[in-house]
Structure formats: structure tokens, C-alpha cells
Amino acid sequence: MSVYDKLQALGISLPPLAVPAAAYLPYVQTGNMVFLSGHIARKDGKPWVAQFGRNINTEEGKLAARAVAIDLLGTLQHAAGGDLNRVKRVVKLMSLVNSTGDFTEQHLVTNGASELFAEVFGPEKGAHARSAFGVAQIPMGACVEIELIAELA
Question: Which SUPFAM superfamilies has this protein been placed in (predicted)?
């Protein structure tokens, strides 16, 4: 089953390439490796503003991380010349979770993205290394920001 068949089965439409909000590129490719800049969680087209441990819970956070993963897939599609079937492997995610000092479930929030990549690319190509950090703030007050490294065929 192609990546696009899986996306269709999941009811996912990919967004167009996001325009950077500051002085950076949405992605950089060197050799077969592509490095995607951090994407923030959005809800209804606006930054999903919240802080874990204060006004958003882990289950909502998984949905936010999944939304970020969908945006990352849109950028990755552009980086892959319009064909996500060229993705050889999702190599690594780095997740920043806007949280209070006593919130400790950053890894569970980030599962929302990790699980989607495994669903879309399968367990071989979608499994990846990962870091999940709790941070005091993310640009625009977003609850989650995730960056991605992938290998293209």
C-alpha cells in the first residue's frame, strides 16, 4: 500500500508547504538527508496556544502532536519532490512541549506524532529515534513544536 493510500484511509489531506514565520528555511536537504524546521501545533489555522500542566492535558496534546505531524508531512512531501513514497526512513523527531515544571508526560504527548509516522510509513520506515523536551515557552505560545529528519531514496 502506498503512502498516499494510507493517508486516504486515515482521512488525511496534506497541507501546502508552510511559509516560514521568521528568517529560516522550511527544510534543507544535504545528500539524501532532509532536515525539516520545527512546525508548531495549529488548531483552526491558528497557533494552538496552551501549556501542559496548566490548561491542556496529555490526550489533547497527542492530538496537537498529530496535527504537527500532518503539517510536517506536507513539508516533507515538498522536500521529496512531491512524492512521499521516496521517503526511505523517518530518522529522528525532536519535540518541544510547552509545559510547567511539574508536567512529566512530554514523551506521551509526542507519541501523537510518532504513532502517525508509523501508521503512514509502516513500522520499518516510520520508526525513528526521538527526543521530547519540556520547555518554558514555544513561539507564539504554541503547545508543541516538532522538527523532523528523514532519509530520501
Answer: YjgF-like
Block residue for cell numbers 520547555: 135
Distance from C-alpha of 32 to C-alpha of 87, rounded to nearest angstrom: 10
Let me know: does 137 contact 90? Beta carbons within 8 Å.
no
| 110 within 8 A of 147, measured Cβ to Cβ | no
State the Cα–Cα distance between residues 153 and 145, nearest whole angstrom. 26
User: How far apart (Å, rounded) are the C-alpha atoms in residues 152 and 87?
Assistant: 5
Q: What is the DSSP letter of 62?
A: H
Please answer whether residues 87 and 121 qualify as being in contact, where contact means their C-beta atoms are separated by less than 8 angstroms: yes
| Closest CA relative to residue 72, chosen from 100, 102, 113 | 113
pLDDT in tens, 24-38: 999 999 999 999 999
Task: State the pTM of this model.
Answer: 0.97
User: Residue 113 in contact with residue 143, Cβ under 8 Å?
Assistant: no
- Size of the chain, expressed as the number of residues it contains: 153
